[in-house]
Write a structure and sequence with these properties.
The chain is of the alpha/beta class. The protein is built from 10 helices and 11 strands. A 6-stranded parallel sheet has the order 1-11-8-7-5-6. Strands 3-2-4 form a 3-stranded parallel sheet, sandwiched between helices. The termini are far apart. Bound molecules: NADP nicotinamide-adenine-dinucleotide phosphate. The site of NADP nicotinamide-adenine-dinucleotide phosphate has 25 residues, from loops.
């Protein structure tokens, strides 16, 4: 029987509706809404399109959105001062600096200057530490891993005692999702293995997985015979493998493929995420959730 599709586009709609309702309630009771600032340096087209989508989503859920565009030539000191200003601004609960930054600016220094209590991307070392400790310590789980966990839970996939295998050990996906799945608590309690380019017999590890999370950035890396029948397969990979003309707009668009051989894998897996339309839409959604959480922490209602 073909796998059930886990559609990020549908789960996104559910979560954004929940956020919109909660924002309206908080506004009525406390007279405030979550404030998100997006800082964009320069005019990188991909960054502009990501930021535009974030702004659009923030407006949709009723946030105060501050769009702060800075020229490519801004100095590191000036950018650090700007972040300091937003750190001190009580109407701002989430600060987002769109990456990449120009070469003359130290990205790490900039990200580390964000107040950890407004770091809704969850990349500040303080938030990485909080995630590692788990439980009540966690404030802002990084958005893509948080989206993955949400998809698994909302699809009714059992995580407690499950064998989870994560392909990839990056700081933004592999390591944090592995850490989140092994924590004590709902949506976790799994036995976790992380594999990477130095792993021997990767297929053998993957074959054991009740939940297989793949974030390698290699199109078609995971073969159907690596998948345990009935497993839940989360394909995080987004790989541009060519271009086509969009039927809707008549413009050139990228052809995207995941890290899993989807057509064959869906005949074996129990659940599977498509690419595009799977994990992708969840990242911005969880950014909104983290920003709302930030305000709730501030109000003492989280
Ligand atoms: P990354 O930083 O390049 O890390 C890739 C990881 O995969 C590394 O740990 C690497 O191992 C491992 N890997 C690569 N090739 C492998 C192979 N042949 N066998 C085993 N392991 C292999 O990538 P990332 O930032 O985590 O992103 C991974 C993919 O997810 C990309 O396609 C990216 O576009 C996508 N992504 C999607 C979203 C989203 O949908 N919202 C968000 C983030 C990322 P080593 O450490 O040994 O090199």
């Amino acid at each position: 029987m073909p796998a059930k599709l886990i559609k990020g586009t549908e789960i996104r709609e559910q979560i954004l509706e929940e956020i919109t309702a909660e924002v309206a309630q908080i506004k009525e009771k406390h007279g405030v809404v979550p404030g998100l600032v997006t800082i964009l340096v320069g005019e990188n087209p991909a960054s502009i399109s990501y930021v535009t989508l974030k702004i659009k989503t923030a407006h949709r859920v009723g946030f105060k959105e501050v769009q702060d565009n800075q020229p490519e030539t801004i100095s590191e000191d000036a950018l650090l001062n700007l972040i300091d200003r937003y750190n001190k601004d009580d109407t701002i609960h989430g600060i987002l600096v769109q990456l990449p930054l120009p070469k003359h600016i130290d990205e790490k220094k900039v990200l580390n200057a964000i107040d950890p209590d407004k770091d809704v991307d969850g990349f500040h070392p303080v938030n990485v530490g909080r995630l590692m400790i788990g439980g009540d310590e966690v404030k802002f789980p990084p958005c893509t891993p948080a989206g993955i966990q949400e998809m698994i839970v909302r699809s009714g996939v059992e995580t407690s005692g499950a064998e989870v295998v994560v392909v990839g050990r990056s700081n933004i996906v592999g390591k944090p999702i592995a850490n989140m799945m092994l924590q004590k608590g709902p949506g976790a309690n799994a036995t976790v293995t992380v594999v990477h380019t130095r792993t021997r017999n990767m297929d053998q590890h993957c074959k054991r997985a009740d939940i297989l999370i793949v974030a390698a950035g290699v199109p078609g890396l995971v073969k159907p015979e690596w998948i345990k029948p009935g497993a839940c397969v989360i394909d995080v990979g987004v790989n541009r493998v060519g271009e086509k003309i969009s039927e809707k707009t008549g413009k050139k668009v990228a052809i995207l493929k995941g890290d899993v051989d989807f057509d064959a894998a869906k005949e074996i897996a129990g659940w599977i995420t498509p690419v595009p339309g799977g994990v992708g839409p969840m990242t911005i959604t969880m950014l909104m959730k983290n920003t709302l959480k930030s305000l709730k922490f501030r109000l003492g209602i989280a």
